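Section 5.1 Outputs to date
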Amino acid sequence: MPVRADYKRNGMSSKYDYLIVGAGLYGAVFANEAAKKGKTCLVVDKRDHIAGNIYTKECSGINVHVYGAHIFHTSDKFIWDYINEFAEFNNYINSPIARYKDELYNLPFNMNTFSKMWNIATPAEAKKIIADQIDKLGITEPKNLEEQALSLVGKDVYEKLIKGYTEKQWGRDCKELPSFIIKRLPLRFTYDNNYFNDRFQGIPIGGYTRIIEQMLSKADVRLNTDYLADREELDALADKVIYTGAIDAFYDYKLGVLEYRSVRFETEELDMENYQGNAVVNYTDREVPYTRIIEHKHFEFGKQPTTIISREYSSEWKKGDEPYYPVNDKKNGELYLKYEELAGKESKVIFGGRLGAYKYYDMDKVIAAALSMAKEELN
């Protein structure tokens, strides 16, 4: 059932127990848990759809990941069982490909990668090549991201698979980026293309939006509604607020602006059955302007006569742009702590989610955080 923007779905009273700002995964999980306890919720979102950044939209029979690839993965069986209450998951395994000029490599860095790069067969050979390259460079105290990466993986892996991709992501030369951005670069000395190490993994059959629809089935939902523009009116409708928007925006940026990385997508339908043969292909040379191409049908093993691809570009974020990833550095971390201190003084507002907590969350961690908060709040 599609969610309309302007209705009362369940005939609730005009005063709600909770106003939930943001119809993404965090807010939807809380709404679902609150409904189990007999609580009433109004959910508002400034977008014209529910599901936040995990929103999927069906086009030509293909579920398009509108805001980029989302693969559900977790090692927490409780969280896996929880999400499976709302959808059946397929057996998709995330196995991206890296394309450097006309060369193709498996990701993550594993024996398939090394075998292709150096025409070798054994882990011992790969380890020796990498160790020799690192030793030859003689980097003891990395001064920037380039030196850090070189000291971890050597020259070949860095230059072909890390340098160009990272520079596109951050919009600057690796020599100008701080070393702490890369703390470790996992090297697998097995022939294993599974990107994640988690026990459970898959894509919901039919897309993510259906999951959020079910979680919000007992809540009232208003779309195209900007909470910060109509805060006074909306606050009056509920006893308490669950806020999943940007925490600095809530306080009108009075302590300063938190920074994010942003991405944009160019999506098109192609009159062919199969464009690249894989859901995700990273383009690791600097000359190609986009960071990767997503071919959506492969997430669900689609056999449709056409295909839909999205070219993903990293872009410089400025205030007002759609925020995607918090910038994990000292300056922003310290500023967030100041906002967190303000938030702790709020008696009727709870902050959560990726933007409210200024954290990069995988989906399983979003669910865990929302369930933990709901347990504390509702019991």
